[in-house]
Amino acid sequence: MKECAVYAAALAGTLLGAGVAFAGDHGAAAHSEVEAAEEFDVGADVKTRGVELGEYRIRSYHLVEAQKSTVQFVLYAAVSSERFRETQYLVDNHRYKIRDQIITATRMAPLAVFDEPGLESFRRRIFLRLRRALPELTIDDVYVSEFQLTVKSL
After folding, report:
1. The pTM is what?
2. What does the alpha-carbon distance between residue 142 and residue 134 come to, in Å, rounded to a whole number?
3. CB neighbours of residue 91 within 10 Å
4. Which of 18-22, 67-71, 140-144, 148-152 shows the lowest mean pLDDT across its residues?
5. pLDDT tens string 94-122
6. Neighbours of 77 (CB within 10 A)
7. Burial profile 117-138: b = 16 or more Cβ within 10 angstroms, e = fewer
8. Quick one: 76 and 125 in the same domain?
9. Residues 119 and 61 reside in one and the same domain
10. Are residues 29 and 68 in the same domain?
11. CATH number of the domain encompassing residue 119
12. Which structural domain, as residue segments, surrounds residue 108?
């Protein structure tokens, strides 16, 4: 029995040394990887930073208007500098849930929303869906970049 305990302790020490995380670690290794992924230092005067939420290409069918639309964009979330690492960690861990909410918001939006110059209504729809789905994700706003809309008649 004593040999089993020694063997188990040796195995656990070997696995921990190799970087394997156990259930009790709660992702501590992944959090340190996010900190290591920080590419550059930001000055103390920067109050807001951006977290990329992904590149999207979403196709929707509007049967009433007999149209097919394709929306392409890159989405960023604005967060305060103090919460940047925490937000980046949450975005990395909930990437698919965030993606599903963005796709749903885009497909539910009428085509008239995409005609606004600043896309305020579209950004607001995405922002509200993300806040409802992930209340722990503390973002200040979302920004759309490289926006392109293609509409074809069926």
Report:
1. 0.70
2. 14
3. 21
4. 18-22
5. 999 999 999 999 999 999 999 999 999 99
6. 23
7. eebeebbebbbebbeeebeebe
8. yes
9. yes
10. no
11. 3.30.479
12. 43-153
Token reading at 104: 């749903």
Q: What is Dmax (Cα atoms) for the chain?
A: 75
Domain count, the chain: 2
**Do 77 and 29 share a domain, yes or no?**
no
- Check whether residue 21 and residue 48 sit in a common domain: no
DSSP character string of the chain:
-HHHHHHHHHHHHHHHHTTPPPGGGTTHHHHHHHHHT--S---TT--EEEEEEEEEEEEEEETTTTEEEEEEEEEEEEEEGGGHHHHHHHHHHTHHHHHHHHHHHHHHS-GGGGGSSS-HHHHHHHHHHHHHH-TT---SEEEEEEEEEEEEE-
82, 100: one domain: yes
77 and 15 assigned to the same domain: no
**Taking Cα atoms as reference points, which of 108, 90, 97, 107 lies closest to residue 132?**
97
Q: How far is CA 69 from CA 62, 100, 117, in A?
A: 8, 18, 18
